[in-house]
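Hey team,

Filing this mostly as a record. A colleague (T.K.) asked me to run one chain through the structure pipeline before their review meeting, and I want the input and output archived in the tracker in case anyone asks later how it was produced. No errors, nothing strange. Just documentation.

Input sequence:
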Amino acid sequence: MSAASVPAAAAGAPAGAGHSIPPAAAPKPPGPPTFGLRIATGLAGVLLAVLMAGLNENVTKVALADIRGAMGIGADEGSWLLAVYAAASVCAMAFAPWCSATFSLRRFTLAMLAAFMLFGALCPLAPNLSTLMLLRTLQGLAGGALPPMLMTVALRFLPPHIKLYGLASYALTATVGPTLGTPLAALWTEYTPWQWTFWQIIPPCLLSMAAVTWGLPQDPLKLERFRQFDWLGLLLGLPAISMIVLGLSLGERMDWMESGLIAFLLIGGCLLLAAFLVNEWSHPLPFFKIQLLANRNLTHALITLAGVLFVLVAATRLPSSFLAQVHGYRPLQTAPLMLMVALPQLLALVLVAALCNIRRVDCRWVLAGGLALLAVSKLLGAAATPEWTRENFYLLQSLQILAQPMAVIPLLMLATSGLAPQDGPFASAWFNTIKGFAAVLAGGVLDYMGGQRSHFHAQALADHLGNAPLTMSGTVPALLARQFQHQVATLTTRDIYLAMAMMAAAMIVLIPLVAQRIYPPRAA
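Output structure:
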């Protein structure tokens, strides 16, 4: 037997073989799907789903008075309806990225879309308040799970040279979506049965499901991830987030820490949240990767995102609130003001993404420019008078057409640049949860500021008028009472506008201190 035949025999070669047979090469794992029409259709489907989730929350919030009147719900019960939806939505944002990685992106997105649509269709048919609360909670869970899917699709499937345009589509949900709430609420409450404030989502969700089914590739299940499931993290994080969001949403109505329930929710929620973060630090498969916060740009983006959302929430709420209190505007009369901001941003987002995609352009200074425009807009609002009508707000709102995308798209660049592919779901969890928390916190803080400043100005004006009996009968006292209320509303609005201008300016100062220069993905 020749020397060459020895290894052949040892390897189990057929008798008489004179040479060894090389082992077959292991098959290469399939590469990522090529971007094309199908992926673009899937991205559009997820974008539509996320827009519907945001619009559903904002439309029902704006149209709450009409919904309460139709369903015989009191003011307190109405505030709980909004609070449980918000709490469930933020919870879902925190845990959805883990679920999508386990059950597959397409499968999980379709399941959440179907649930979101089903629970929304059933809400107007609820026989009692308890059933309605349950349906809104479940719908909040399904709706909150959708925004992280959009960021995941953009980060995973888009090639580097167009990745910023995918992130711009995510920015669309943070800037245009909330602004469209008032016009759509006006449409459904003025011209259709009130049930359409809930049913509006059904046709777009069906279209979204079709696009996602055809457009997104189907990944295999990864149920083995349950072997390392973070049970303690779920048991700590879910109640922590729910308690904090409920406390912030209901705080103003229940007088904040003067209420035992609000004190329990906020203090208990913060303690549970601290324990949750400690657990996440050491868990091998966490929901939140705390170590990512060592990335200065991610940390800066999250902090600034919270501040930007404060300013954007104020930009949406203040004109509507002022015009309603001083001039009795309904959503239909405020709608043109909101549409003026929402529709041109469809073009502005693309232009800002193209600007940030140029290598010579430092996205930090695009961010600074957007924050500066926001600050100027709020300073102009700080000059409001009781004579201001809708036309006086057009200049303020027009500045936000560019300011909002200039503030949000660079933050998305800073948050996602330089991350390893396996860290994408963790970045999505961080960004979306902070986004959800910040929106709720902004609403609570603005309610608190509005209440405190209204009380302060009412006291000051009453002292100035010598504590005149403003509510006594008679034409002159009644007119004076209305002027008194209008002046209080105006001064309160001016104070909040000024505070938002100062916040935007403070975020500009933070940029050179924390953020580091990055380049667009196509130049990497």
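Quick notes for T.K.: The chain is about 75% helix and 0% strand. Confidence is low (pLDDT under 50) at residues 1-22, 470-474.
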